[in-house]
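I am still getting used to C-alpha cells and would like to learn alongside you. To get us started, please write out a protein record for me. Once you have written the record down, we can walk along the chain together.
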Amino acid sequence: MAHSTCPGEHRGKVDWRTVIVFVSIAFSSQCGGGFAAGSTPWTYFFHNTGFYGMLPVVTQPFFCLFMPLVVACINCFIIYFFMKFAMDFRTFDYGAFLQKYGSRFLGGRLARPMLLVYEFNFNWLLIVCMALAYSSSGSALNELTDIPYMATTLIVGVLMLVLCMKGTSLVRKNAVFMSAVIFITMIAVHVPNLFFNISSGRLSQEMALMGADLDAAVASGAGSFLKYLLTAFVWAYIFSGQNLGGFGAYVNHAQLFDNKRTLRWAVILSVIANWAFLEMSVVNLAANYSPIYEGWAAGKAVYSILVVQNGVGTAATKALMLTLLTVSIFFATISTAINYAQGFNDRVLNWYQKRIQEDPEISAKKRNKRGTVLTFLYICLTWGVSQAGLTALVSKGLTLVSYITLFTLVLPTIVNAAIGWPDGGDAAEDPS
C-alpha cells in the first residue's frame, strides 16, 4: 500500500526500511536459478550461441570483466526513471503505466501496441522463467548425482507443485528470509574463491588465454576487435533486458516510496548489490574459463559447480560449498517458481472472471479450486518446456524477452527521460 503523506511531508527523509525491502526484492528478482548456477553470465558474457541468425556466434570473453558494469548502468538508468514515472503519475498497474508511458510521444499511437506486445512478452516470461527454475535445480542435481536430467526436473516439478498449491503464503511471507539465504550462500561460495583465483594467478592466466584466443580470431579474419566489442555490449544489454522484462512487478512496488530520495537510494543500492554479485560470479567464471569451456562443450550447464570443484579448500570444504551452492540454486528456484505460478494464476483468473462477468463473491469461493487446476496445468506446461535444457532456455528464451523489452520499456524510457516531466506528474501539470 502506498504511504499516505501530505505534499512535502518527509520530502528529504530517506526511509531505510523501504530501501532494504526494495533491495531485497530487486536482488531476488535478478539472482534466479540461472544466475546462481552461472549459466546466465556464461551465456551472455563468455560464449553466446547466437540468436536465430540475428546475432553472430562469437566468443568474446576478453570483455567479460567490465560488462557487468555496463549492465548495472543500464539497469540504474531505466529502473530509476520508470519507477519515478510510476510514482509521479500514480500508475502502479503495468497496463495503466504503459498507456500513460506511450501517450506522451507520437500522439500516443504506440500506447496500445506497447501494451499488447508487453502482454505477450510477460506471458512468454512466465513460461520461460518457470521452466528455467526447473532446469537450474534439475541440472544441478543431474551434475552432482548423475540422476538423469528428465528425472531430476520431474522431482523438482513435483516439489514445486506441492509448494505452489500448499505453501504460497508461507513462501511469500518469507521472501526476505529466502533472499537473505541466497545472499549469504552466494557470499560463502564466491568470496573465498574470488580471493583464491586472484591471489593464485589463475585469473590472470585465463585472461591471457582469452586475449590470445581473441587475437587469433581477429587475425584469422573471423571478425574484427570492434565487432567482438560491439557484440559484447549487445549481450550486456540482453542480460539487462531479460531482467527488465518483468518490470510490471517493479511498477507495482513503486507504491512503497513517498519521496525521490528514498527511491534513488533504493535503486542505486539495489543496482550496486546486483552488480557486485554478478561481478564476483563473472570473475570466478573467468578464472575457470578453460575447464568451464570444456564442460560447456561436454553439455554441462551449472558452471558454478566447476568453480567450487576447481577452487579453494579441502575436499570437505568443497563439499560444504557445493551444498551451499545447491541450497542457493534451490532457494532461487523456489522464489521464482512461487512468484511466477501465482502471477500466472492471478492473470488467468482475473481475465476469466471479467470475461464471464461473474459475481466477485462467487469467484472468491471458486478461486482456490480453479487455482489448483491452473497450477497443475502451468507446472506441466513449464516442465515440458524445461526439457529444452538450461542453455537453450537462457540463450533463446530470455534473449527474445530482451528484444521485446526494447520496444515496451527501454526506448520509451529514454524518450520520456529526454522529454522530461515535472515532479508530481499530473498533479504538477494540472494544479487544479
About this structure: The radius of gyration is 22 Å.
